[in-house]
Amino acid sequence: MGLTTKLLPTNLLNMVKRSRPIYSAARRMRFTAGTALGSRFVAGLDSRAHYNDFMLNSTTLTDVESYRRGAQAFVDILGNSIKAAGRNWDSIGRALEVGCGYGRIIRELRSQLPSGRIDVCDVIDEGARFTAAEFGVRRVPVIEQVSGHQPETYDLIYLLSVYTHLPLSMIEENLAAAARTLKTGGIIVFTTHGFVSASTAERYNQYWLDKQTVLNALSQDGYYYERYPYYYDEYGLTWLSTDQTKALVARVAPDLKLVRHDAGHLDGHQDVFVFQKA
Ligand SMILES: C[S@@+](CC[C@H](N)C(=O)[O-])C[C@H]1O[C@@H](n2cnc3c(N)ncnc32)[C@H](O)[C@@H]1O
């Protein structure tokens, strides 16, 4: 059955998005249908994909290839990040993906790291549950929601396209929790939207987004966040300058030392930051 994540053509979708209650109801219906349908095998993937996997635009060969290529490229980036920090995959006893969605990255990461050494979490619990069940990894609670002592568990924590969607206070909270659960010598890799992304902000094709406003804010404050106007949750698009990102890490996770920063390294678009816990 060919239910795609985006059922409506962009123009029509944008019209619906201009009414928050209508968009919200339509989205809820779409995801309820996806939940009921669950998952299926898709040509080009060696394991099932969930109907609610919003990273898979459709099941056309082109979209499936792009979905896989993006994930494989990120796993390569993780490998290079680990190497830059003086480690290798064998030394990664336990890894955590924060914001795993429906397992796009885990599907590919399994070629480098056995599933038994991988944990995942996501605020979309259905995504984390599906990823755990389908790929044999372990689902853990959303890290900043865990109260009390958090043991230093991980050699690697990574977040792909997560801080690109959250306001500063939520990034700070998450990063502080991530840093606490990293072992000494552990590595954290995360992506941001920096100047490279801001200067091509039209790629998002968002009717509500003003590129010049983003560029001005980034130059002046090093930060811009706008909630998706059609969402009720605090989730949108975020840009952070390199200096602001470094300052935020120094503020909430001073044990983390910069290993490398590559502007626009992910898909010529997102910045990749690698830090290691001293
Ligand atoms: C753009 S998606 C990226 C999904 C996945 N990393 C990928 O690249 O395929 C961002 C994901 O981060 C999740 N997320 C946002 N804030 C989070 C948080 N504080 N903790 C865990 N997951 C979060 C969202 O629910 C969503 O699944």
Written as H for each helix and E for each strand, in order along the chain, the element string is HHEEHEHEHEEHEHHEEHEE
Bound molecules: S-adenosylmethionine
Helix content: 25-40%
How are the strands of the largest sheet arranged?
5-4-3-6-7-11-10
Average pLDDT across residues? Answer: 95
How far apart are the first and last residues' alpha carbons, in Å?
A: 50 Å
Give me the secondary-structure topology.
Layout: H1 10-17, H2 20-37, E1 39-40, E2 49-50, H3 61-84, E3 95-98, H4 104-109, E4 118-121, H5 125-135, E5 138-139, E6 154-159, H6 168-181, E7 182-192, H7 195-198, H8 211-221, E8 223-227, E9 236-240, H9 242-252, E10 256-266, E11 270-277
Parallel strand pairs: 3-4, 3-6, 4-5, 6-7
Antiparallel strand pairs: 1-2, 7-11, 8-9, 10-11
The chain binds S-adenosylmethionine (SAM).
What does this structure look like?
With 278 residues, this protein is an alpha/beta fold. It has a single domain (70-277), classed as Rossmann fold (3-Layer(aba) Sandwich), CATH 3.40.50. 38% of the residues lie in helices and 22% in strands. It is built from nine helices and eleven strands. It has helices spanning 10-17, 20-37, 61-84, 104-109, 125-135, 168-181, 195-198, 211-221, 242-252, and strands at 39-40, 49-50, 95-98, 118-121, 138-139, 154-159, 182-192, 223-227, 236-240, 256-266, 270-277. The strands form three sheets. The chain has a seven-stranded mixed beta sheet with strand order 5-4-3-6-7-11-10, sandwiched between helices. Strands 1-2 form a two-stranded antiparallel ribbon. Strands 8-9 form a two-stranded antiparallel ribbon. The model has no long low-confidence stretch (mean pLDDT 95). Bound molecules: S-adenosylmethionine. S-adenosylmethionine is lined by residues 55, 98-101, 104-105, 121-124, 127, 142, 160-162, 165-166, 174.
